[in-house]
Design a protein that fits this description.
The complex is a heterodimer of chains A (about 210) and B (about 200). By secondary structure, chain A is mostly helical. Chain A folds into three domains: about 60 residues, no CATH class; about 40 residues; about 60 residues. Chain A contains eight helices and three strands; from the N terminus they run ααβαααββααα. A two-stranded antiparallel ribbon of chain A has the order 2-3. In chain A, a hairpin with a 2-residue loop joins β2 and β3. In chain A, α1 packs across α2. Chain B is an all-alpha fold and about 200 residues long. Chain B contains eight helices and one strand; from the N terminus they run ααααβαααα. In chain B, α1 crosses α2, α3 packs across α4 and α5 packs across α8. The radius of gyration of chain B is 20 Å and the shape is globular. The chains are: A mainly alpha (about 210), B mainly alpha (about 200). Chains A and B meet through α1, α2, β1 and α3 of A and α1, α2, α3, β1 and α5 of B. β1 of chain A pairs antiparallel with β1 of chain B, so a sheet runs across the interface.
């Protein structure tokens, strides 16, 4: 079947549809050419029956359908808006959820700002007594468990004094308490090791202090 | 045997069901089928060609909106006829009121011609003199083969169904269908010269 035959079969079915003799299966669809054709056949019938007025308006049906389509679009938009506003529980829930999420975000942001402010204020106060050079020294960090920078500040000197005092106290205690010969030998070796270690550290510290880091 | 009137009524009701199901194209068929009848009713009531177009348009729109409540207890055309009469009467009443209160400064004044007749904004794109069209159609009908002319006349003027025409002319229904279509096609070709 070529294109022309196919078209004629379609048009013949359209003619049958126009006469109310049959309706196509499935949904009905009319393209512009089919509408024009139905319109002309309608004019033929009306003319033969003497139903035409003085003037004929061939675009009348098209204009009616345009108005209906406009009306449908307007109704659809109104219905959709009403659906979103009132009838759709899921949409309403989503709206509430969005509002709650916005509120939580605002509270969290405010809390974060407050925390930063308080923490910053405390930090500022805590460091308020230090001079600029002290602040720079603080970045040096401890060496072998001793804060090297503190030697420049004189703080470690106090610690060393306290260390010497506690060592003297220890010596006194050792003299007072009796020990076995083996234990005495071990502790003597241990003391020597400790002494050497302390001397090594002190030597290191003295060298370190004599060449200050900038 | 299925009569033509019954066939059309059944077809109308089927089309209405389809419109109720959301097929707007089905309403397009109904509008095309009844546009001239509805305009004639409106013209008889208001006596004005331009107003009859507005009334007919309003009637089809109102019928479409009310179609959800149409239960098929009467024929679709009977129902549409009542709507058209009501719209035409309302139109006449509101026109009578408006004629007594014409606001010369209002925007509506632009919608009236020099004789005071209402002119709608959506003037139809094309207007054809009916006499000219009528002549072209009848000339083409006279040129048709007798069997085609007979089939079309029995269908359009006498309102017979395909079955009734087939029984009357002793030909199969398929032949009737084909003859009616060929007759329409021939006249249609003559009509295109009038740019319809």
């Amino acid at each position: 079947m070529d294109k022309t035959q196919s078209y004629e079969l379609k048009a013949e079915q359209l003619s049958e549809l126009f006469d109310g003799q049959s309706l196509p299966e499935g949904s009905l669809s009319l393209d512009a050419e089919a509408q024009r054709q139905l319109n002309r056949w309608s004019l033929i019938g009306a003319s033969l029956r003497g139903e035409l007025g003085e003037r004929v308006y061939p675009d009348f049906a098209r204009q009616v359908m345009e108005r209906i389509n406009e009306e449908n679009a307007r109704i659809m938009m109104t219905d959709q808006a009403a659906l979103n506003r009132e009838e759709h529980p899921a949409a309403r829930f989503r709206l509430k959820l969005r509002k709650a999420a916005l509120y939580v975000t605002q509270v969290a942001a405010a809390a974060a700002i407050a925390m930063i402010t308080v923490f910053g204020y405390q930090t500022w106060n805590a460091e308020g007594n230090y001079s600029l050079s002290e602040a720079a020294d603080a970045t040096l960090g401890p060496v072998g468990g001793v804060n090297l920078a503190s030697f420049q500040n004189g703080i470690e000197q106090q610690n060393l004094t306290r260390y010497e005092a506690s060592r003297a106290q220890l010596e006194q205690n050792k003299v007072k308490s009796p020990v076995s010969p083996a234990e005495g030998q071990d502790s003597a070796q241990l003391r020597q090791l400790q002494q050497r270690e302390v001397e090594r550290i002190n030597q290191y510290l003295r060298n370190y202090v004599s060449t200050p880091a900038y | 045997m299925k009569s033509a009137a019954n066939a059309v009524d059944l077809s109308d009701n089927e089309l209405v069901k389809r419109v109720q199901g959301g097929e707007i194209a089905a309403y397009n068929v109904l509008v095309i089928r009844y546009q001239h009848k509805v305009r004639q009713i409106a013209l008889k009531i208001c006596g004005n060609e331009a107003d009859s177009g507005d009334i007919a348009q309003e009637a089809f729109l109102k019928a479409y909106k009310a179609l959800g409540s149409f239960r098929g207890e009467s024929a679709f055309y009977t129902w549409l006829y009542r709507i058209t009469v009501n719209v035409a009467r309302s139109y006449l009443e509101s026109s009578a009121k408006n004629r007594n209160h014409v606001d010369v400064d209002g925007e509506d004044i632009e919608a009236q011609d020099i004789r005071g007749a209402l002119v709608t904004g959506d003037t139809p794109d094309r207007i054809i003199e009916s006499e000219e069209l009528h002549r072209a159609i009848f000339t083409a009908l006279g040129e048709l083969a007798p069997e085609l002319k007979q089939a079309l006349t029995l269908r359009e003027v006498e309102g017979l169904s395909y079955e009734e025409i087939a029984a009357l002319t002793h030909v199969p229904i398929g032949t009737v269908r084909s003859r009616i279509f060929r007759a329409r096609q021939y006249i249609e070709e003559r009509m295109t010269e009038l740019e319809v």
